[in-house]
Structure to design on (148 residues):
């Protein structure tokens, strides 16, 4: 059951980052490197929550149906409901706090493998997950820093 945590300071405002986390339009796949447009299906979006299936072609196809919750200020929690890789209860937690010039982002990822594929990816997360997930988040932040 790998748990990965990391922190990033960015010039991107907390509102802009949280808006990107909670934007479930087709542009989502352009911003988030681990989401393919063909795996994105929005089931329901409310004022502070969403039910979304997303994933990528990685490892022959990894998908999960997630419940997003951003009802707590400066926080977005993503909990797995169903997946071909992860057990329900697997999660991502983003805490985004303002700084004088942007935001401080704390990311906590808790993965509970549900299949052989999940166990293999979990090993990779233990070996290099912090670096890989941090780089993917930094890539998102670079895109968000570009003028709209």
């Amino acid at each position: 059951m790998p748990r990965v945590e990391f922190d990033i300071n960015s010039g991107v405002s907390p509102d802009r980052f949280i808006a990107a986390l909670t934007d479930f339009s087709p542009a989502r796949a352009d911003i988030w490197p681990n989401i393919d447009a063909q795996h994105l299906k929005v089931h329901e979006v409310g004022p502070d929550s969403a039910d979304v299936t997303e994933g990528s072609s990685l490892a022959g196809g990894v998908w999960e149906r997630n419940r997003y919750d951003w009802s707590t200020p400066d926080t977005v929690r993503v909990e797995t409901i169903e997946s071909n890789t992860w057990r329900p209860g697997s999660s991502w937690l983003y805490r985004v706090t303002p700084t004088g010039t942007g935001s401080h982002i704390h990311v906590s990822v808790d993965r509970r493998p549900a299949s052989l594929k999940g166990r293999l990816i979990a090993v990779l997360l233990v070996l290099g997950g912090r670096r890989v997930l941090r780089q993917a988040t930094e890539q998102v932040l670079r895109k968000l820093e570009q003028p709209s």
